[in-house]
Amino acid sequence: MMNDKNNKIPFNEDNYTHNINRNNERKLDRRGFMKTLVGAAGVFAISSLPWGAIAAKELTGLSDKKYPKHKITDVNSIAIGDAVDFAFPSEHDSAILIRLSESKYVAYQNACTHLRCPVFWEKAEGEMICPCHHGKFDVETGEPIAGPPRRPLPEIHVKVQNGAVYAVGVKRYEA
Amino acid sequence: MKRSYVPVALLLAVLFLNIIFTQYMVHQYFYEHYTNTIIAAVINVILFPIAFLIYKKGVNVND
C-alpha cells in the first residue's frame, strides 16, 4: 500500500516556478491592466446600485412618517408673515410654523442641519436664519441657501381644520 | 505586434469618471437630493458596459 503514495513530494523540479510557462507571464501587461480597469468599473457599477435603490425609496416617500395630529395654533392668532414655535412630533423636537399667505402655511423642524442650533424666521429678510453660523434656509422649501448647512430642514406637513392649524406628519424625521 | 494605448487611456478616463460620479452620488445623497443621486448611480452603471466595449475593441484590433 505504501507504494501508491507519491514519495516525491514536492515533485522533482523547481517548485516555485513550475506553473510559469513563458517569460514574463506574471508581468502585468497591457491586456491585464485593461482587464483590471474593466473590473474596477464593474465594482463601481455594482456599488452604485444600493445608493440608487435607497434614493429611490426616499423619493417614493416610503420613509415619510405619520404621527398623531397635533394642534399648533389657531388661525386667528397668527398673522400673515408671522411665525410660531411649537414642538413636533415629541416635546423635545422644536419646530416652527410660518404663515406665508392667507392659506399657505409651512412648518419645519427648526434644528439647523449644520449643528442643530434653532433656526429663526426673519420676517424682514424673508428667510430663515440660523444665528450660530449665519446659515440661511429657503422658507418655501427648507433648502439651505447660504452658510454651512447643506441639508434641508425636515418639513412638517400641516393641515388647516376648523380654524386651527395642525401638524400631521414629518418628512424624514430622525430622532 | 503594434500596440495601441488609446484604449488604455480611454479606460483610465472611464475610471476617472467613475470616481467623480461616485463622490457626486454620495454627496448628493447626504444633501438629500435623491434625484441627482439616482442620475449619478445610473451613469456609474452605464460606464461599466462602455468600459467593457472599449476593452473588447482594444484587445481584438491591436494585439
Explain this structure:
- The complex is a heterodimer of chains A (175) and B (63).
- Chain A is of the alpha+beta class.
- Chain A has 2 domains: 48 residues; 106 residues, 3-layer Sandwich (Rieske Iron-sulfur Protein).
- Chain A is built from 1 helix and 10 strands, in the order αββββββββββ.
- Chain A has a 6-stranded antiparallel sheet with strand order 1-10-9-4-3-2, with no helix packed on it. Chain A has a 4-stranded antiparallel sheet with strand order 5-6-7-8, with no helix packed on it.
- The mean pLDDT of chain A is 84.
- Chain B has one domain.
- The interface between A and B is medium-sized, with 26 and 37 residues.
In short:
By secondary structure, chain A is of the alpha+beta class. Helix content of chain A is 17%, strand content 30%.
Please give a handful of descriptors for the protein shown:
heterodimer; A: 175 residues; alpha+beta; Rieske Iron-sulfur Protein; 2 domains; six-stranded antiparallel β-sheet; four-stranded antiparallel β-sheet; 1 helix; 17% helix; elongated; B: 63 residues; mainly alpha; 2 helices
Low-confidence stretches of chain A: none
Number of helices, where a helix is a run of at least 4 consecutive DSSP H or I residues of chain A: 1
Fraction of helical residues of chain B: over 70%
Q: What's the end-to-end separation of chain A, in Å? A: 72 Å
Order of helices and strands of chain A: HEEEEEEEEEE
CATH architecture of the largest domain in chain A: 3-layer Sandwich
Number of domains of chain B: 1
Keywords (chain B): Membrane, Transmembrane, Transmembrane helix
Topology record:
The complex is a heterodimer of chains A (175) and B (63).
Chain A: H1 30-59, E1 65-74, E2 83-87, E3 94-99, E4 105-109, E5 120-122, E6 127-130, E7 135-137, E8 144-146, E9 155-161, E10 164-170
Antiparallel strand pairs in A: 1-10, 2-3, 3-4, 4-9, 5-6, 6-7, 7-8, 9-10
Chain B: H1 6-30, H2 34-62
Helix pairs in contact in B: 1-2
